[in-house]
Amino acid sequence: MKSVQIQKIQNVLRTKALALVWETFLQYEAPDYSREGIETFQNSVINNEDYLNAIEMYGAFEGDSILGIIATRNEGSHIALFFVDGKFQRRGIGKQLFQAILENSTTNEITVNSSPFAIEVYHRLGFVDTAPEQMTDGMRYIPMRYKK
């Protein structure tokens, strides 16, 4: 694997980044969700321009290929999206993406609503659960927090 570069995703690459998000979501997270949860994710994230315009997205690139993305909202205090292509998971790419968020966030605390699939990833990054698993509009998640 060549050197992975982490960079901010500008609007020109947003479609490519969202394709990775959607494909990875369908493969790893959708199996744990009801039809309502899958539709909620698609409508409230992937197809929601207001949502997409309110997040700051970073990508892990190898040449022209996007391997993963992380996005925050609320001035970097909440992780809104965090996906690494399945072919590249467990190679430190997620950790590099998270490091970019830490470097660019001005808050002392970062929150996330982790999917059941990603909870162990967040634990390894230093997040702690703040409440038991919850469900909103068919989306299952565990509220978590990271303190710098």
Automatic annotation (TrEMBL):
GO terms for molecular function: acyltransferase activity, transferring groups other than amino-acyl groups. Signal peptide: none annotated. Pfam families: Acetyltransf_10 (PF13673). This is N-acetyltransferase domain-containing protein. InterPro entries: Acyl_CoA_acyltransferase, GNAT_dom, N-acetyltrans/Recomb-assoc. It comes from the Bacteria. Residues 13-148 form the N-acetyltransferase domain.
